[in-house]
Amino acid sequence: MPDQFARKFSIEVTRPPASEIAGLAEILPAGTPIYFSAVPTVTSEELVAAAALLRKVGLEPVIHIAARRIRTADDLRHLLAGLRTEADVRRLLVIGGDVDSTGLFADALAVIQKGRLREAGFTEIGVGAYPEGHPRIPRERLAASLDEKIASATAQGLRVHIVSQFSFSADSIVAWLKQLRGSGINNPVRVGLAGPTSVPALLRFAKRCGVSASLRGLMSGAASSLVGHLGPDRLVAALSATGAELGDIHPHYYSFGGVLETARYACKAAQTDCAAADTGAQS
User: Fold this and answer.
1) Residue 226 belongs to what domain range?
2) DSSP the chain
3) What is the pLDDT of residues 193-208, one digit of tens each?
4) CATH at 61
């Protein structure tokens, strides 16, 4: 039987070329959610084109909407219309974006409140969360913001799931999930995990994203002997062992070590031949 935690995974990518998108379609089951990052240099036209290509090859595009990079309401409307009409995008990940605001939307909540996402034809959004905290936002504000975003989206008839920042500490993830469930938040959670990549790359991304402490814990004692690519095996095993205790949770793999290698790893962790069968990747 496929592992129930690992079975319904999603993958996050950053500007993959058409050849990699085609490669993903050969590896993954139809409908696998592919989250497309809104990096500062990507244009709205590129986002729409990438979403259309993902849809064309049978994958499920989930496009990042970075609030602080959207200058005007017209810019947002134009982007949303393109995603709906040209790529049939139904789900978005609404984030603040770690830059200073350049326009109307100060944060993700502003997009949810003012963006008329349901009217534009979207049915579900993801919102970000941080098991290890955020380097620039107090924990109390993070918790309040999550409540506000879920409440606002739900009131508009949008389904909401949570996508967490990646962590290297199973204890931190489990403690955070227990706190989340204990506070009455039962929305599905896509747990951020770093896909297989080299130790230097992990160190670089961990420092950039403020999760260096849990990476040091993971590597303590064995760091000098680690060679090649390191995958999140321990975290997948630990989270799989929780069973249904923590509700609807599944992996969200960040493809730091390469899109196709991450896809192959996700299939292996799911204990299934993804290319041969639909593993129920959609939420």
Assistant:
1) 4-276
2) ---HHHHS-EEEESS--HHHHHHHHHHSPTT-EEEE---TT--HHHHHHHHHHHHHTT-EEEEEEEGGG---HHHHHHHHHHHHHHH---EEEEE--SS---SS--SHHHHHHHS-TTTTT--EEEEEE-TT-BTTB-HHHHHHHHHHHHHHHHHTT-EEEEEEPP-S-HHHHHHHHHHHHHTT--S-EEEEEEPSEEHHHHHHHHHHHT-HHHHHHHHTTTGGG--SEE--HHHHHHHHTTTTTT-SEEEEEE-TT-HHHHHHHHHHHTTS-GGGS------
3) 988 876 666 666 555 5
4) 3.20.20.220
